[in-house]
Amino acid sequence: MKRVITYGTYDLLHYGHIELLRRAREMGDYLIVALSSDEFNKIKNKKSYYSYEQRKMMLESIRYVDLVIPENDWGQKTKDVDRYEIDTFVMGHDWEGEFDFLKEQCEVVYLNRTEGISTTQIKEELYGKEK
After folding, report:
1. Record's Gene Ontology CC terms (predicted)?
2. Catalytic pick from 2, 42, 44, 103?
């Protein structure tokens, strides 16, 4: 079984998220999503509209996602790749090069984001500058 992992906040879930998850799942047989906890988002100075539990429930309802785990700190990725026997680590292309250190453990793939949609864009269009 080929295992794939990706990370994110997945707030204001939109079709760009779904497309990323679909493409990640196509790279293997089992997709794990490490979802940023509310506490970790505070460390990253990110504010989510939905709580961790609400975001987790939404992700778990997506057919491409097999398991949702909490992401609690920046250093967790190396441990997760070992713990879950990951074959492929996937992130959006805006993170290009940031996780190349994982190439010693698994394949690292940066997928192009879906054009014309992002959570930042949604917030800006709804509220003006991102809050």
Report:
1. cytoplasm
2. 44
